Structures are given as C-alpha cells and as structure tokens.
Amino acid sequence: MPDDVDVHAQTAYYGLTRWNDTTAHIARLCTEGSARIQRLVAAAPWGDDSAGTAFHAAYTKDAGPEVLQQAGERIAKDVETLGVKVRTAVKNTRGTDKKQAGTTMSI
To answer: Does residue 86 lie in a domain region?
Structure first.
C-alpha cells in the first residue's frame, strides 16, 4: 500500500463534474417521480368498491407513498452531499500538497 496520496486535479475535476451532472439527474428523477406518484394517488384509480377500498388501505398503509417520496428526496440529497464532501477533500488534499511542496522547496 502506498504511503502517499496523489490526486490528479484534472481527473478529480472531471469526475466531480460528472458526479454533479448525475446528481442533478437523480434529483430531477426523484422530483418527477414524486410528482407523478402524487398525481396518481390524487386520481384515486382504485375505485370505491370493496376491492378498491382494500387496495387503497394496503397502498397507503404506514404512509407508503409519502415514505417513498421522502426516501427519494433523502437519497438525492445524500448523493449531492457526498459530492460536496469529496470536492472538499480533493481541495484540501491539493492544498496540503501545495503547502508541503512549498515547504520542501524552501529547504
């Protein structure tokens, strides 16, 4: 195992840019999916008969649609937050490398 870490700035920047693009796509999918679920629930396609009532009770048990929506929002936020943390780690590592190089050059 190496004793040092080498962060290639261009590669890290490219990877994090792709991460941000993907995160934006995930957030958009979660938002669109949540809106679709809300529209479908509001339409109440299960009907008023006994089968429809039973389906509705099972579908909404324990706040099923709301839990799904909240989980999607949380996942999108967590993925975005992770990207920010990685960007910060790369920046800090590069800053430490630059500072160490300056110290070494002054010897």
So the answer is: yes
